[in-house]
Amino acid sequence: MPEIIFNGPAGRLEGRYQPSKQKNAPIAIILHPHPQFGGTMNNQIVYQLFYMFQKRGFTTLRFNFRGIGRSQGEFDHGAGELSDAASALDWVQSLHPDSKSCWVAGYSFGAWIGMQLLMRRPEIEGFMSIAPQPNIYDFSFLAPCPSSGLIINGDADKVAPEKDVNGLVEKLKAQKGILITHKTVPGANHFFNGQVETLMAECEDYLDRRLAGELTPEPAAKRIR
């Protein structure tokens, strides 16, 4: 897959990019875990997500947030990283103007950035949030969450405890017009040690069902005049 460098808000950003053969293929952007705790675009889960979307014909991009690998700049506590993600999506869209839809998948810190990107970009029609951390990051901006998606976590996750993730899911599930699918991987910790295959099987099943037109929200009931 081609190594690429593109311009971000704080300097150059390093990524891996695989264009689809179809001009109008959807775009997938994958966002890595926390830069200050070893997160990079070469994280195993990020790589597997990239490959999953690529295999299904998406134009796919993963990249290093500012200050990681060959990406310039310094860690910016989320605000700058969100700008990096928006720039990454702009860059792919400039190369694929016929692509009308987009997915975002994020793991841990990347899940928080991905959900913020979702709020800013109406073309994002699906998301995957893997091990989000509502105990650490504020997700109240999802009011309302504009797209259906998957939230998946391990029930032995001490970094993002199950009860906090469940609270976020319940809030989002109460919203009309979207469908939140929640999966829990039994025995998995925050890093899915020994459970990455199970995690990816759940992600693949979800994506395949969405691409087949399943998992769409019930239409809102019509008012009787």
TrEMBL record:
Residues 17-138 form the Xaa-Pro dipeptidyl-peptidase-like domain. GO terms for molecular function: hydrolase activity. PANTHER family: AB HYDROLASE-1 DOMAIN-CONTAINING PROTEIN, ALPHA/BETA-HYDROLASES SUPERFAMILY PROTEIN. Coiled coil: none annotated. Pfam families: Peptidase_S15. It comes from the Bacteria. InterPro entries: AB_hydrolase_fold, Xaa-Pro-like_dom. This is Xaa-Pro dipeptidyl-peptidase-like domain-containing protein.
